[in-house]
TrEMBL record:
Official protein name in the record: 8-oxo-dGTP diphosphatase
Domain Nudix hydrolase: 2-127
Gene: mutT
Originating organism: Aliikangiella coralliicola
Pfam families (UniProt xref): NUDIX_4 (PF14815)
Cofactor requirement: Mg(2+)
Keyword Cell membrane attributed: no
PROSITE patterns: NUDIX, NUDIX_BOX
A Gene Ontology BP annotation from the UniProt entry: DNA replication
Top EC group: hydrolase
Length: 135
């Protein structure tokens, strides 16, 4: 089984995180996710993240910080997710590919259904929210 490498963004503004809904026809369709996409063979995770966020959300990011790296094996595929914290960006995020996007209070993120590979990040965000960190 091949390994799909993905760069994903934890985009935070005013103690809210931006999430997007996966298209119905995709793997885990209808679930919510952190925006991003596949890393191409010729690019770094950071450049893939910048490209994907421009293509999907019409935003330019600055200084993404490594947040978490998770390998997860689904029955049908294996993924290596590289998550980055993004607090500096230009533009107003909008779903350029027709995907719903929304800002959610970090302490409310557990009310949304995420793919299993994303759950450690959801838990990490909730624990940071519990510690009253400000973003």
């Amino acid at each position: 089984m091949s390994l799909v490498q993905v760069a994903a963004a934890i985009i935070i503004k005013d103690n809210q995180v931006l999430i997007a809904q996966r298209p119905a026809e995709k793997h885990k369709g209808g679930y919510w996710e952190f925006p991003g996409g596949k890393i191409e063979a010729s690019e770094s995770a950071e450049s893939a993240l910048a490209r994907e966020l421009l293509e999907e959300l019409d935003i330019h990011i600055a200084d993404p910080a490594e947040f978490s790296e998770i390998r997860f094996d689904y029955p049908e595929k294996s993924v290596l997710l590289k998550f980055f914290l993004v607090t500096e960006f230009n533009g107003e995020p909008r779903g350029l590919e027709g995907q719903p996007v929304q800002w959610v209070a970090i302490n409310q993120i557990e009310n949304y259904q995420f793919p299993e590979a994303n759950l450690p990040v959801v838990e990490k965000l909730l624990s940071m929210s519990d510690s009253k960190a400000e973003y």
